[in-house]
Design goal:
Helices cover about 45% and strands about 0% of the residues. By secondary structure, it is mainly alpha-helical.
């Protein structure tokens, strides 16, 4: 498979479901905390931010807020 074909292969395993992350049960990272807080403020949904969530939950909330704000990938 060429490099271009690999780059366009949407069945690749480069993006895992956060529920399947090995470290998904660990506390969210500082970067996730900051980004989630910013996004929740921009989306006027402060209830989406919480200090005590996991990496996996933070990722899901970030994805949902990015989608709501139409920030794409």
């Amino acid at each position: 498979m060429s490099d271009k074909a690999i780059a366009n292969d949407t069945s690749s395993n480069t993006e895992k479901n956060p529920d399947n992350w090995v470290s998904g049960d660990e506390p969210m990272t500082g970067a996730q905390r900051s980004y989630l807080q910013t996004l929740s403020e921009q989306a006027h949904q402060p209830e989406q931010f919480a200090e005590d969530i996991t990496k996996a939950e933070a990722s899901k909330r970030i994805d949902a807020l990015r989608s709501k704000l139409d920030l794409g990938e």
